[in-house]
Amino acid sequence: MNKKLLFLFSAIFFCLHASSQNRYAVLLTDKNNSPFSISNPLAFLSQRAIDRRNTQGIAITSHDFPVNPSYVNQIAATGASVINTSRWLNAVTIETTSPAVLAAVNALPFVQQVYIVGRVSNPNRGKDKFAFETPYPMAVATKNSSPVLSFNYGPSQNQIAMLGGDVLHNQGKTGQGMMIAVIDAGFFNADNMIVFDSLRNDNRLLGTWDFVDNNPQVYDDHAHGTFVTSIMAGNWPGNIVGTAPHASYWLLRSEYAPTETLMEEFYWASAAEFADSVGADIINSSLGYYEFDDPVQNHTYSDMNGITTPVSRAAAAAAAKGIIVCNSAGNEGASNWNYIIAPADADSIISVGAVDDQMNYAWFSSNGPTSDGRVKPTVAAQGQGTFVADLSNNGVFAGNGTSFSSPVMAGMMACLWQCNPNATNLQVIEALKQSASQFSNPDTNLGYGIPNMPVACQILASLSIPENELKDRLLIGQNPFHSLLDFIFFPASSKSIQVLLTDISGKIVYSNNFQVIPQLSRNFSIQPDISSGIYLLSIVTENGAVNRKVVKL
Predict the structure, then answer these.
(1) According to CATH, what is the number of the domain 467-552?
(2) Most exposed residue of 49, 337, 421, 465, measured as fewest CB within 10 angstroms of its CB?
(3) All structural domains of the chain with their residue ranges
(4) CATH class of residue range 143-461
(5) What secondary structure letter does DSSP report for 124?
(6) What is the distance between the terminal CA atoms of the chain, rounded to a whole angstrom?
(7) What's the rounded Cα separation, in Å, for the pair 171 and 273?
(8) What is the pLDDT of residues 243-269, one digit of tens each?
């Protein structure tokens, strides 16, 4: 069973209209002669999106430009129906049943590649992937980290207190001023539920859009996004309080529930680009992809390298724009697949695994690493017995899945970022990892482990962004280190870097060259054969060198 909407279930819920077929992705060669310009970014980005880039030292480039409208018009002139566009993938998705039209599209001089993304050979696969597992009994809190609670969390206390989130809430860090975009399959009845009363009354529900049906109506589609959002935005005292109850939210639908096609990865990309353009700080995505109705479209484990699937490329691009992306790791831990699924493999995002209410690995949670050997999942939160709001306004139920551990983490990231609003998204993620229970010894089940938000807040509050690092950026993991030296490097423009370790006498004791992707951070874990002592870590790029003192224990 392909669990793209990442929670586990057993009862049928919705059946929607059939999906369109014969849809294609048209990848373009360039953005030449674009009517958009770097000098006028307000034509394609909000001021809030521009401010996010400026705060983090992220340049606006042609990568931010929408697809060239002239190219879109010429594609439409062939007779193809244009469905959507993706600025980051530089792609147009179309629908046609005509071989002649497809040939005409292929013949356009700016078209690089055309491939199928929407043919459905086995719709629904005989079962509904949106049914629920029988609700669990109410969980018992395992951690009460403060004597006085700012909120009456009810049964949702454990999933927050496990991370020390109640401490941040008591410090006034509840997500206010932060913008979270929820990308999901629909938000059925969310406009009428008690759990979202304060969200509506305070005008913090900023807007909605359905990228599948191309309209603002998201409340008549699937309920998965409703449950996910209640974990973050809910404020129903005694029943459920979300991890970011005072943040602002966009509700974006990218998922067509009854079928599984590659087209949905392009919907996701469009939704993430929209989230970027309106200035979102955080994206929560409880979605994932690897197996489709048409086996021709299937991904393989080797594709889980962060740069192959369209959705992972889009997630990495969002991270490169300064957004924190939280994505469910997947529910394939007990399946033949076993591993994380896209876009959880994307670099520089938070891929969230699941634990139970006693902080033990949840049996269904997808495992790492990525196919290129990076640590995944990044961290873990409660995803087994997680409390979410009931659609009937009668209370809450306990559900299972990394669909639910991801919003627990996403909401907490909004609160954590308040500890240092001028920090970069990468610095926030690094502080999160450094606070986690397994930071010095990450594994394939929980990654760096269960974060401690008050510790992460202290780490983050002490950071600033040195002026000379607004281009190439380097973040060190545990320092002093034992055998493994972990660090994250963000290359502004280089495609290759040299990593050097120099001892106090000036002798180079470690040297290696690595390939990197400009404007995408990469995690490194090296194991130099060196003695205990003080060393200089240098990352040499075309822009010069970034240096840090490190200590080997």
Answers:
(1) 2.60.40.1930
(2) 421
(3) 23-117, 143-461, 467-552
(4) alpha beta
(5) G
(6) 47
(7) 33
(8) 999 999 999 999 998 889 999 999 999
